[in-house]
Amino acid sequence: MAQKSTPKMTQTLIKTAIVNALMTLLLAVAGHSVAVAQEPAALTIAAPQPAVGEVSLVLGKAWLVSGSGRRAVATGTEIRAEDRILTEANGHVHIRFVDQALVSVRPDSRLEIVQYDYNADAPEQSTIKLNLEEGITRAISGAGASAARERFRLNTPIAAIGVRGTDFVVSATPRAVRALVNEGVIVMAPFSSDCRADSFGPCLINAVELTGSSLQVIELEGSSTAPRLLPAAVERGPGMMEEEVRVAVNDVQNNADDQNAGTGIYLESVTSQRVKNEAANATQPQQPPQQPTPETPTPSLVDFTPETAIAGAELAERNLIWGRWGDGQAAQERMTVAMAEASAGRDVTVPGGADYLLFRAGNGGERIASGLGTVSFGLASAQAFYHSDSGVAAMTVNGGSLDINFDNSRFSTGLDLNHSLTGDVQFSASGRLYDGGYFHTRSDTERMAGAVSLDGTEAGYFFEKQLESGNIQGLTLWDAP
């Protein structure tokens, strides 16, 4: 006879079924956990790539782009393979690699560390590849590139560059590449089926070699089938001739020869004999100007180059101030002070050629005051030098204009210059005002870089103009009315 079911028995059966189901589920989970535990490789997290270099100095704004995202570059930032360095208009970065190679990334540049496998035990087995996407970089070979020349490559948008233990500067755009060798040898060739970007070492097809002793520049344009060598006169072209600044690799100490230990001055200027000669000429006493004769009346134009150097105390009262490395142009300097004095209590803004930096008071601020509208600045002071085969000579700056529209972030400027060797020369530029109050332009024959004070009352810029023979470089300071 069947037992009659009761509500209490029904509840017991339901509870038993639930417990059995839970036990089955727990056993299944436990079995899965065991299976996972038996396959530890599935949970392994890839270790980060080892650092191949370290940032030794940063000026202005620069960024590191890696697999983990984008962040600001700072002194001490570790560099790894596949990282990219991006510099803004006032940015400049120095990197010291594990094999003691030195690389500087100049303003408005993008450099990728494609691969950096340095074998300290067997340097000849090292493999190194860099990719200059755009801008200017200087590379001084370390132990890896020196020992493994057939396994080093610097790629640009249109050309491959191999080295034979060297110190060289490269300027690259999507349409053209130029390079200057300070020491050693480079080999440049256009990309082709015989010279692929994913290869290593110098290419041999349509390749041209350049040595540091030739006093020439090598250039490849997008429409050319092979690079060409340009005469030394082009060497002083804007954006190619000199690095933007002379700066310390780590710190400024007396032992200037001990670069491998991270001390001393890392000179960014080109070291060709021609430039050395010009620097030597610049330090020679200048002949006093000839007094005008009755037949040659004194010009009535105003010269904005001070007859004597502006006192440091007077410059220190300005918001913007130009600092110089070393003696600069020696007795011809008129409106600059020593770098240590200029940097006290100020922030660096833009570089001025190889010898100068423009500093701004602002306590680290980066925002320009609002509601400034359009300001027509007046030229306060200027100095300009004509560089030629015969030496360096001070020019006359007769006047100029600088208009900045803060509402639409645009600027335009012009300068009138003169020298007996050049005649009347006009410099002009226009373009965009960037965040932080920076402005800059660059063309085949002219370039400039400047900044405004955060309150919009002062401005200053460095300019350079290439002439048919020689070039002009100068500094300006401007005041709002």
From TrEMBL:
<feature type="region of interest" description="Disordered">
    <location>
        <begin position="274"/>
        <end position="302"/>
    </location>
</feature>
<protein>
    <recommendedName>
        <fullName>FecR protein domain-containing protein</fullName>
    </recommendedName>
</protein>
<feature type="domain" description="FecR protein">
    <location>
        <begin position="83"/>
        <end position="186"/>
    </location>
</feature>
<dbReference type="Pfam" id="PF04773">
    <property type="entry name" value="FecR"/>
</dbReference>
<dbReference type="InterPro" id="IPR006860">
    <property type="entry name" value="FecR"/>
</dbReference>
<feature type="compositionally biased region" description="Pro residues">
    <location>
        <begin position="286"/>
        <end position="297"/>
    </location>
</feature>
